[in-house]
Write a structure and sequence with these properties.
- The chain is α+β, with helices and mostly antiparallel strands.
- The chain has helices at residues 158-162, 266-274, 284-302, 309-321, 333-349, and strands at 42-43, 52-53, 57-60, 66-67, 71-73, 85-87, 91-96, 99-104, 116-125, 128-132, 139-142, 173-181, 187-190, 197-198, 202-206, 219-223, 230-235, 240-245.
- It has a domain at 1-105: OB fold (Dihydrolipoamide Acetyltransferase, E2P), CATH 2.40.50.100.
- It starts with 41 loop residues before the first strand and ends with a helix.
- It is found in: Nucleus.
Length: 350
């Protein structure tokens, strides 16, 4: 006699809701199984632009909205049911016309053409360098995309390829600009400007990429107090920041030591300067002010304030008023919070 196996009936409690025919109404998922509480998206009623959502929360059920980055459409629990826009990451809601997207609270840098970035050389390859710019993919800097001794339009020769490590080697820091982007998001950099090139005479620090505000210029020169002189700040859009002693750029009328430089020799003299590995002498006063500025930028990022030209200056003034010197208060969260609050108060007054 054959044995017939019957599927077990679902367990029914008194709280289950019955349908009009006296049966039990059950919610099924896409596979036909019973949907558990964790399978259905959590509802986030009353979400407005700027509100914070977590993965799996329903942002809206209104069909007029189009889903954007950081969202997906939930599958209807029943045939003919409506779809909801659900968040796929933790972030804030952004609404542009009828497009609904989620901006991540913390994310890796996504390169865009024209961005000024600070990077570190990872590998020296044939005719190119591989550069870390805090993006999902490492960037590429071609030998043809840098200034070479003898002029910017000089043809690259086999000798230049053999001497490629004299320009940049592993571990070197540089400031560059994003020139092109490939289909898979790989960035190509260039340093064909006298304001770009190798970085030295300073300190390197990192913050979250989203904490640097996009500005007209990301290279700042600040006049410091206590005899520190001028300090250059390179605010990379990718969250890599370099703070260094100010160096006077070369012009046609004067070289690095005040000597006259003709326009035909300008590119050659500039190239020799920006590829030097020798740090200049930095006074203790300048070192102290560099450290103070680094702590200000770190405090701004830690307290969720966008780093830009105005906030760096206001934060530096607040740190001077608090008599916070060097790196002594870098790890003190309360001191950094006081500096940020004072800087925000100054901005509101202004």
């Amino acid at each position: 006699m054959p044995i017939q196996i019957i599927a077990p009936a679902p367990f029914v409690t008194a709280d289950d809701e019955a349908d009009d025919e006296g049966g039990v109404r059950l919610d099924f998922d896409n596979d036909g199984d019973i949907a558990m509480d964790g399978d259905a998206p959590r509802r986030a009623a009353g979400r407005q632009s700027g509100g914070i959502v977590t993965p799996g929360e329903v942002v809206t059920e209104d069909p007029q909205w189009m889903r954007g980055h950081g969202t997906y459409l939930s599958q209807p629990l029943a045939p003919g049911g409506s779809q909801s826009i659900v968040s796929s990451l933790a972030g804030t809601i952004s609404k542009t016309n009828k497009l609904l997207s989620i901006r991540a609270l913390k994310f890796r840098y996504v390169p865009e053409i024209g961005d000024l970035v600070v990077g570190r050389i990872l590998e020296v390859q044939t005719k190119r360098w591989r550069v870390d710019i805090a993006a999902p993919h490492s960037a590429t800097l071609l030998l043809s995309s840098i200034n070479l001794p003898g002029g910017i339009l000089r043809k690259r020769t086999s000798t230049d390829e053999l001497q490629i490590r004299t320009f940049f080697s592993e571990g070197d820091l540089l400031v560059a600009e994003v020139q092109t982007l490939s289909n898979d998001g790989l960035a190509s950099l260039h340093t064909r400007s006298l304001k770009y090139g190798k970085l030295r005479n300073g300190v390197f620090m990192t913050i979250d990429a989203g904490m640097v505000r996009r500005m007209k210029s990301h290279v700042l020169t600040m006049n410091t107090s206590n005899g520190g002189g001028e300090v250059d700040i390179y605010l990379g859009v990718n969250g890599y920041i370099y703070i260094a002693k100010h160096t006077t750029p070369l012009t046609e009328s004067g070289g690095p030591e005040g000597k006259s430089v003709s326009i035909t020799r300008l590119e050659e003299e500039a190239s020799e300067a920006i590829y030097s590995n020798v740090n200049e002498e930095i006074s203790p006063e300048t070192r102290a002010e560099i450290a103070r500025i680094a702590c200000v930028i770190g405090a701004l990022a830690k307290n969720g304030v966008k780093v830009d030209d105005e906030m760096v200056h206001l934060g530096y003034e607040a740190a001077l008023e608090e008599f916070l010197q060097g790196m002594e208060w870098g790890g003190d969260g309360e001191a950094g919070k006081r500096v940020v609050e004072a800087a925000l108060a100054k901005r509101m007054e202004g």
